[in-house]
Specification:
heterodimer, A: four-stranded antiparallel β-sheet, about 0% helix, B: about 110 residues, mainly beta, six-stranded mixed β-sheet
């Protein structure tokens, strides 16, 4: 059974940093691209970032480019999102999602980890 | 990097059909056959309903179908059931040299 478990969320002050993790199991992690998608409270889904199976291809939404860094450790079956210079508008539930290919669709999602940016 | 355009809400009675549109540009919806649709119930993670414009993952009822014409994709749900009431999001690949994905703003489906 595919499982994606996010962690690392919490309350953080504006301008500070946070690192999210996603632990994957139930599939061959290094065969698949992985993505982060977020959802602000009461709002829609927003793609944040994606990374190919071998980290050779990476993309970011304009809203986070230069502040967030996606990475993965295939030996640990883990995906990460380093979030720097956090802003109030980054407050959201952050989902980790598995992507079967490079075509940008997601077949499995985690339950999300909540990030709240507030002073 | 603008979001794809979806109607805010649609509604239908049990047994009827509804169609949700998703309008993008030639850089996303119109440029690739990589449109997907997700269903999200309150407090739950999104669930994949359609991928590659019109393909259904196993386990998704054939009442759900997808199509695309030009820069607009559509999700049609036939034989509406009460459990179909949820938010629906379209999504499209939008990158040529790197990963880039864009979602629609979401559509609330109400089953009357």
């Amino acid at each position: 059974e595919v499982q994606l478990v996010e962690s690392g969320g919490g309350l953080v002050q504006p301008g500070r940093s946070l690192r999210l993790s996603c632990a994957a199991s139930g599939f061959t992690f290094d065969d698949y691209a992985m993505h982060w998608v977020r959802q602000a409270p009461g709002k829609g889904l927003e793609w944040v970032s994606g990374i190919s199976w071998n980290s050779g291809s990476i993309g970011y939404a304009d809203s986070v480019k230069g502040r967030f860094t996606i990475s993965r450790d295939n030996a640990k079956n883990s995906l990460y999102l380093q979030m720097n210079s956090l802003r109030a508008e980054d407050t959201a539930l952050y989902y980790c999602a598995k992507a079967p290919g490079s075509s940008g669709w997601f077949d499995y999602w985690g339950q999300g980890t909540l990030v709240t940016v507030s002073s | 990097q603008s979001a794809l355009t979806q109607p805010r809400s649609v509604s239908g009675s049990p047994g009827q059909s509804v169609t949700i549109s998703c309008t993008g540009t030639s850089s996303d919806v119109g440029g690739y056959n990589y449109v997907s649709w997700y269903q999200q119930h309150p407090g739950k993670a999104p669930k994949l309903m359609i991928y590659d414009v019109s393909k259904r993952p196993s386990g998704v009822p054939d009442r759900f179908s997808g199509s695309k014409s030009g820069n607009t994709a559509s999700l049609t749900i036939s034989g509406l059931q009460a459990e179909d009431e949820a938010d629906y999001y379209c999504c499209s690949y939008a990158g040529s040299y790197t990963f880039r994905v864009v979602f629609g703003g979401g559509t609330k489906l109400t089953v009357l």
